[in-house]
Design goal:
5-stranded parallel sheet; 18 strands; binds adenosine-5'-diphosphate
C-alpha cells in the first residue's frame, strides 16, 4: 500500500505535540512525533514521504535551529520545509536565524489551529502536486526508453536492409548484420547456423561474441538430431524458440565449454518452403528479450533469409555462367583448331588445283590439237564411225579445258588476284553474239531464246571476257535446266542510281521456263561446288537437260559480277520438274567502273 504523506512534529512537550497533531487530524496524513532533535533526525532519515516539519525552537539539548541545520545534511530531508513554532515570534533576530537555517515559516504560540491547518494544507498540496509531477516524469521516462528502444530496432533494421542491398559477399554480409544486432541490442552472442544437408548437421557460418575471444569458430557443427540443443530444435522444426530463463528450459544445453547464458532467442531462417538454418541470440541476463524485440528480430531473420537465398541464387548463376564460359571457350578452341585445319586443307586444295590444272592444260592442248588434225584426216573423214569417235575426243578435251579454266578462274576470284580490263561494251551485241554461239544447241533442244528491251540499255564499262563468261554461264544453265521445247528470255532495263554523281545501273534478267530453284537453295547455288541432286548421278554435259557440271558456274558468275561492283541473284517460286515454274537470274551491273585503277572487288 502506498504510504501517506507525513508531518514531523518536534517538541519536547507531549501536550504541545498533541495539540498540534489534533489540529491536523482532518488531513489525510501520517503524523510522526519526535520529542527531541535526535529523534527527529532518525525519523527524517527513514521516512521519505515527509512533506513538512513543525519544529519547536526551544528544546533542551539540540534546539530547533540546530535541528534545522542538521536536517539539511540528511539527504532524504535536505529540502524538507520547516515551520518553526516559537513564543518569540516578534524577535527579528530569531527570524533571521530561522531563515538562515532554511525555515519557511513561523507560527507563534499559542498556535491557532486554523492557521496551522491552512499552512500545513498548502505544503500538503505542494507535496501532492510534486508527487504527481514525479509520477508523470517517471512514466515519461519509461515511454521514452521504450521509444528509443523501438527507434534503435528500426534503425538497426534499416541499416541491416542497407547492408543486404550493398554487400554481395554473403560471409561479410552476415558478419555485419550480426555485429549490428549484437551491439545495438547488447546481446552476448549472435550467431548464424546453416543446415548442411550432406552431413545432416548444422554449421556455424558466422558468430559474434561479446567477449574478445570467440567461443566457437565458424565451421563448428551440431548434429541436426541433437536432442538437447535449441539451435538443432529450431533447425528441425522451423519454429521460433524463446527462453527467457535458460535454467528452467528443457532444450537448453549448459556445458562447461560455453559461457552460461540467462536467455536465448533462436529464429528460423527460411524462404518459402526452404529452411536454411537459424539465427541465434543469447544474453547472459535472463529476460533479455521483450515481445517487441522478438517481433523486430523476426523481421531481421526474414531479411537475412532473403539475403541467403539471393546469395545462393547468385552463386548458382555464377557457377552456371562459369560452366557456360568454359564450354564456350572449349568450343571456340575446337572451332579455331577446326578452322585452322580447314584453312590448311583449303590452301592445300587450292595449291593442288593450281598444280593439276596447269599440268593438265599442256597435254589437253596436245590432245585437242591432234584430235582436230585427225578429224581432217581423209581416212577418218571418210569413216563416219571413226570420225564420230575422234569428234568425241575433241568435245571431251574442250569440256575438260573449260572445267580447268573455270577452276583457275575460281582460284583467281578466291585469291582476289582477278584483274579486270574494263572497256565500253554494248550488252545487246554481246548477248546476240552468245545467242548465235549457242544456236546449234538451242535448235537441237528446240528451245526459244528471245532478247527483249535490250536496245534501251546504255553501253557499260566492263571486262568483256568476264561478262561473256557470266552470261554464257547463265544461258548454258537456262538451257540445261529447261526441258526441250521451252523458252528462254533475256530482258533488260536501265536502273537510275539514287546516289548523285553515279551513272546508275543496268539490270539484265535471264528467265527460263525450266524446273526452277527451291527457295532454300537460292543462295547456296552461288557457292562453290554446289549442285542440286546426287553427284554420282550427274551426267556431265554443257547443254543436255539437267546435264550437271562441277558446280562452279554460278559461283564464278557471282565473283565476276561482284568484281564489277554489281549483284547477281535468282528468283524462282520453287523447283518442280513437272510444273516447270521457271527461274529468273538477275544481274545488276554499274554503268561505270571506278577509275582508281584498283580492281573493283567488294570487300
Ligand atoms: P553446275 O555446274 O551444276 O551447273 P552451277 O554453279 O552452274 O553448277 O549451278 C549450280 C546449281 O544451280 C545447279 O546444279 C542447278 O541445280 C542450279 N541451277 C543453275 N541454273 C539453274 C536454272 N536456270 N534453273 C534451275 N536450276 C538451276
Amino acid at each position: 500500500m502506498e504510504k501517506k504523506p507525513g508531518v514531523l512534529i518536534v517538541d519536547d512537550r507531549p501536550a504541545n505535540r498533541h495539540m498540534l497533531a489534533r489540529a491536523l487530524s482532518t488531513l489525510d496524513v501520517q503524523i510522526h512525533e519526535a520529542e527531541s532533535g535526535e529523534q527527529a533526525l532518525a525519523i527524517a532519515s527513514k521516512e521519505p514521504e515527509l512533506f513538512v516539519a513543525l519544529v519547536d525552537v526551544r528544546m533542551p539539548g539540540m534546539d530547533g535551529f540546530q535541528l534545522a541545520e542538521r536536517l539539511r545534511q540528511v539527504p532524504e530531508a535536505s529540502s524538507l520545509p520547516i515551520i518553526f513554532i516559537t513564543a518569540l515570534g516578534s524577535d527579528s533576530y530569531y527570524h533571521q536565524r530561522a531563515y538562515e537555517t532554511g525555515a519557511v515559516d513561523f507560527l507563534s504560540k499559542p498556535v491557532s489551529p486554523r492557521v496551522l491547518l491552512s499552512k500545513v494544507s498548502v505544503f500538503l498540496d505542494l507535496f501532492r502536486n510534486q508527487s504527481q509531477l514525479k509520477g508523470l516524469i517517471r512514466r515519461l521516462d519509461t515511454v521514452n526508453a521504450a521509444l528509443s528502444k523501438q527507434t534503435l530496432r528500426l534503425e538497426t533494421a534499416a541499416e541491416v536492409m542497407h547492408q543486404i542491398a550493398s554487400i554481395l559477399d554473403l560471409d561479410e554480409l552476415l558478419m555485419r548484420v550480426l555485429s549490428l544486432t549484437r551491439e545495438r541490442f547488447g546481446y552476448d552472442f549472435a550467431g548464424i547456423w546453416l543446415r548442411d544437408d550432406e552431413s545432416d548437421g548444422i554449421v556455424l557460418r558466422a558468430g559474434q561474441y561479446g567477449t574478445p575471444t570467440p567461443v566457437r569458430e565458424p565451421g563448428a557443427a551440431i548434429a541436426l538430431n541433437a536432442p538437447k540443443s535449441i539451435i538443432a530444435h529450431v533447425c528441425r522444426t522451423g519454429v521460433t524458440y524463446l527462453t527467457n530463463d535458460t535454467s528452467a528450459d528443457e532444450h537448453y544445453l549448459a556445458t562447461d565449454e560455453l559461457p552460461p547464458m540467462g536467455s536465448e532467442l533462436t529464429l528460423p531462417l527460411k524462404f518459402r518452403d526452404t529452411l536454411f538454418g537459424a539465427v541465434d541470440l543469447q544474453s547472459e541476463a535472463p529476460n533479455a528479450f521483450s515481445p517487441e524485440d522478438v517481433v523486430a528480430l523476426k523481421t531481421l531473420a526474414d531479411q537475412i533469409s532473403v539475403a541467403i537465398r539471393n546469395a545462393r541464387l547468385y552463386a548458382e548463376v555464377r557457377r552456371l555462367n562459369e560452366d557456360l564460359e568454359a564450354k564456350v571457350e572449349a568450343r571456340t578452341n575446337e572451332l579455331a583448331t577446326a578452322y585452322h585445319h580447314l584453312e590448311l586443307l583449303d590452301r592445300n586444295k587450292s595449291d593442288f588445283i593450281t598444280v593439276v590444272s596447269h599440268e593438265l592444260r599442256t597435254p589437253l592442248t596436245l590432245i585437242s590439237g591432234f584430235s582436230r588434225v585427225l578429224l581432217e584426216d581423209p581416212a577418218i573423214e571418210s569413216d563416219t564411225e571413226r570420225w564420230q569417235e575422234v569428234q568425241g575426243i575433241v568435245t571431251g578435251a574442250d569440256r575438260m579445258r573449260a572445267i580447268i579454266d573455270s577452276m583457275l578462274d575460281m582460284l583467281k576470284i578466291d585469291s582476289r588476284s582477278l584483274r579486270l580490263k574494263p572497256l565500253r561494251i554494248s550488252l545487246i551485241d554481246m548477248l546476240a553474239e552468245i545467242k548465235h554461239r549457242l544456236s546449234p544447241t538451242l535448235e537441237e533442244r528446240d528451245l526459244g531464246l528471245a532478247l527483249e528491251g535490250l536496245e534501251a540499255l546504255p553501253e557499260i564499262e566492263a571486262d568483256p571476257s568476264a561478262l561473256d563468261k557470266v552470261f554464257y554461264e547463265l544461258l548454258s544453265n537456262a538451257i540445261k535446266y529447261t526441258p526441250d521445247g521451252g523458252q528462254i528470255t533475256i530482258s533488260g532495263e536501265p536502273v537510275p542510281s539514287r546516289d548523285e554523281g553515279s551513272d546508275g545501273y543496268v539490270s539484265v534478267v535471264v528467265g527460263d521456263t525450266g524446273i526452277g530453284v527451291d527457295p532454300e537453295v537460292q543462295e547456296l547455288i552461288f557457292t562453290k561446288f554446289y549442285r542440286t541432286g546426287e553427284v554420282t548421278f550427274h551426267s556431265s554435259s554443257k547443254t543436255r537437260f539437267k546435264g550437271g557440271g562441277p558446280g562452279l558456274g554460278l559461283s564464278i558468275a557471282r565473283g565476276l559480277v561482284e568484281a564489277h561492283g554489281g549483284r547477281i541473284w535468282v528468283e524462282s517460286p520453287g523447283c518442280d520438274e513437272e510444273k516447270l515454274p521457271g527461274s529468273d537470274f538477275h544481274v545488276l551491273l554499274p554503268v561505270s567502273q571506278p577509275h582508281s585503277g584498283k580492281p573493283a572487288l567488294p570487300a
